[in-house]
Design a protein that fits this description.
Number of strands: 18
Oligomer: single chain
CATH architecture of the largest domain: 2-Layer Sandwich
Structural class: alpha+beta
CATH superfamily of the largest domain: ATPase, nucleotide binding domain
Order of helices and strands: EEEEEHEEEHEHEHEEEHEHEEHHEHEHH
Strand content: 25-35%
Number of domains: 3
Radius of gyration: 21 Å
Number of helices: 11
Bound molecules: adenosine-5'-diphosphate, magnesium ion
Strand order of the largest sheet: 3-2-1-9-10
Helix content: 25-40%
CATH class of the largest domain: Alpha Beta
């Protein structure tokens, strides 16, 4: 018997899709060990691992195995995936052959690819079909990528932003830039430190950014959060405005726009009509920020499509490929 699943691993979140069941897991790409991680004693993975941050004894280490889009700690990555699979399947997968579609970052080297393959073999996946995450994103957004028209897709994640022009089931141009939500969180942290002499945890900042973050300079939302008042050296509350977040994160969205512009410039001018008619498609968690549509519309004067639930587009696309044999075969002939 064969079980079919799909896995995408981002800097911030890992997702697993099971044929027939849909997306069954979407959790932080994180693992916590008891003591020295080298001993391999797993304490928790995903949400539970993140919850231990700053709240457990020094004896626990929390690791994010993916940095800036790429696996930087293969051992931790393998342990994390293996725990996720155990959580989902024990003991149901016993005796099954597992076929999996897995997402890869764009522009991966042969050595990096080997790291992925090695992990997938170790966690017991028997058959691997590897497809670029940005491609999976386009499939997940239901773009007709098999057509000759050029489709422009941007995925703003936690560690990187991937940008590509896709046509005839092929990535014609693609790149990734090291800008993502994590970097923006750090920028907000530094901004708040500089302006208010107030220290906020990165977890609190993600929450603020995801709740009131906005690219509108006239956004009046605000939020009261707790942190440490450095002047008085005591825990305290701070009222933070959407415009404070905007000041800190705007430069990064502008750099993403620069990246998009360079990909547009690198493709043939013949696709101008495709761009004007189809526009740009934005997905990934970072595209949820309020005002992205306006910012990008002003910059590019083409239709801007910011997709709802864009952080799920890659895993959804991978899941879709599991059942779309025609599309899958077409992709495989191009890879
Ligand atoms: N409303 C929002 N505004 C701005 N950023 C957001 C919002 N929602 C999620 N994010 C950011 O999106 C990133 C996670 O996106 P995701 O696509 O899951 O990342 P990855 O695939 O790289 O793991 C995080 O940095 C998170 O803070
Ligand atoms: Mg993503």
């Amino acid at each position: 018997m064969t079980a079919e699943l799909a896995i995408t691993m981002g800097t911030t979140n890992t997702a697993i899709y099971v044929a027939g069941n849909g997306i069954v897991l979407y959790e932080p790409t994180a693992i916590a060990y008891f003591g020295d991680p080298k001993l391999g004693k797993v304490r928790a993975v995903g949400k539970e691992a993140v919850a231990l941050l700053g709240r457990s004894s020094d004896n626990t280490s929390v690791i994010y195995p993916i940095t800036d889009g790429y696996i930087t700690n293969p051992e931790a990555c393998k342990d994390m995936l293996s725990e996720f699979l155990k959580k989902l399947f024990t003991p149901k997968l016993f005796g099954y052959k597992i076929k999996a579609i897995v997402g890869l970052p764009i522009g991966i080297t042969i050595e990096e690819r080997r790291i992925y393959d090695d992990i997938f073999a170790k966690i017991g996946l028997n058959e691997i079909i590897a497809v670029e995450n940005i491609y999976l994103t386009a499939v997940g957004l239901n773009l007709p990528i098999h057509s000759h028209k050029m489709h422009f897709v941007v995925n703003i994640g936690g560690g990187i932003t991937e940008i590509s022009a896709i046509s005839s089931s092929d990535i014609v141009k693609g790149c990734s830039i090291s800008i993502g939500g994590n970097m923006m969180d750090k920028a907000v942290r530094d901004y708040v430190l500089g302006k208010f002499d107030f220290k906020l945890s990165l977890r609190t900042i993600s929450k603020i950014k995801e709740t009131i973050g906005s690219l509108y300079s006239n956004d009046t939302s605000c939020m009261t959060v707790t942190g440490v008042d450095l002047a008085r050296r005591v825990p305290g509350e701070l009222r933070i405005k959407a415009t404070d977040i905007m000041e800190a994160i705007m430069p990064y969205y502008l750099r993403i726009a620069d990246g998009v512009e360079s990909v547009i410039k690198s493709v043939s001018p013949d696709v101008g009509f495709d761009l004007i008619s189809g526009g740009l498609h934005f997905a990934g968690g970072g595209s949820n920020v309020l005002g992205l549509n306006k910012l990008m519309s002003e910059r590019f004067s083409v239709p801007i499509n910011v997709h709802a639930d864009g952080e799920f587009s890659a895993i959804y696309g991978a899941g879709k490929l599991l059942s779309d044999v025609v599309l899958l075969n077409e992709i495989l002939t191009k890879h």
